[in-house]
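[#protein-structures] MJ: dropping Nucleoid-associated protein HH216_06225 here for a structure pass
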Amino acid sequence: MNMMDMFGKMKEVQSRMKDAQQNLNAITETGDAGAGMVKVTVNGLKNVLSIDIDPDLIKPADREMLQDLIVAATNKAISAVEVKAREHLRQATDGLLPNIPGMNLDGLL
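AK: finished. structure tokens for Nucleoid-associated protein HH216_06225:
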């Protein structure tokens, strides 16, 4: 592979990465806590899209537990969507670059 081919590939990788990153908002994942009593949905940009709370949990005495469940569900959803987003970006650039030892594109996410 000569340098001109490599530069051409890099421009294509940049273009595909830009397109893939723009589509991350379409990737969603839902995390739950408390046996599904609290559900949080996030997108590939790690934005919280919705929070669903079982009506039985909304009691003043349960406020602290509810806050902990929301945090747990949010973290679970973000962890799950990171995996999907990484795979989405990997597929967008699959086959464009040679397998170069030590070259890790995970930092682009």
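MJ: nice. The CA atoms of residues 37 and 55 lie 9 Å apart.
AK: one more thing. Strands lie at 28-33, 38-43, 48-53.
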